[in-house]
Amino acid sequence: MTTLEAINKIKQMFTDAGQLPVASAEPLQSFAEYTLKSGAKVMIDKFEVGGKVTLVDEGGNEVPAPAGEHELADGSVILLDENSIITEIKVPEVELPEVPEVEISVESKKVEEDMMKKKIEEMQKQLDEIKMAYDAKLASQEAKFSKGMSDISDVLVQLLNTPSANATEAPKEKFNQHIEKKEDKISRFLDFAKSIK
Fold first, then answer.
1. pLDDT tens digits along 84-143
2. Which sign, positive or negative, has the C-alpha torsion 183, 184, 188, 194?
3. Are 79 and 48 in contact (CB under 8 A)?
4. Contact 68, 82 (CB under 8 A)
5. Residues with Cβ < 8 Å from 73, sequence gap 6 or more?
């Protein structure tokens, strides 16, 4: 039996039983250790409303935490009911440090504008140099093209002005001459004779 066949057989067994196994949606509870402002250690299964809190003594024994407010070392306050369940969490407000305002002087703006103007002038100068080089190259190409066209037209004019050569001697054989056959001559004579009547 292959692995795939074994898996399909196990699936079929669960299907026949009425349901397939489903992974548990609830995560395993894991307690985290926190320190109270007083220095005592507490274990909290989840740091949210509904979380369970237990006190840990020096021997490592856990006992349910008493009801009331308990301040953690980070300044957070948890409120517990009689069953040591968190009913409220108060997070301390954190003051954001003031950011000093930076004042940009008129002089620094002017210096920045001058730098931008210089950069723009440099870029314009580079563009002008590129354009001049391109124009020179284009003019050179146009001159070469014009010279080539002029040379071709000169050759054509010379060819047209060259006289054509005539044959020095007429051909002896006459290939295009038509020779009438005897039957054709007789037929032509008979047609002529009939037309005379």
1. 898 988 887 766 677 666 666 777 788 889 999 999 999 999 999 999 999 999 999 998
2. positive
3. no
4. no
5. 34, 35, 36, 37
Helix runs in the chain, H state only? 3-17, 106-161, 182-196
How does pLDDT run across 39-62, given as a tens digit for each residue?
Answer: 888 888 888 888 888 888 888 788
| Ramachandran angles phi, psi of 22, nearest 5° | -120, 135
163: alpha, beta or left, given left = phi > 0 and alpha = psi -120 to 50?
A: beta
Whether pTM > 0.70 for this model: the answer is no
The Cα–Cα gap between 39 and 36 comes to: 5
Instruction: Give the Cα separation of 163 and 170 in Å (integer).
Output: 19
- State how far the Cα of 13 lies from the Cα of 82, in Å rounded to an integer: 48
Which residue shows structure tokens 């909290």?
A: 44
Phi, psi of 129 (to 5 degrees): -65, -40
First to last CA, the chain: 118
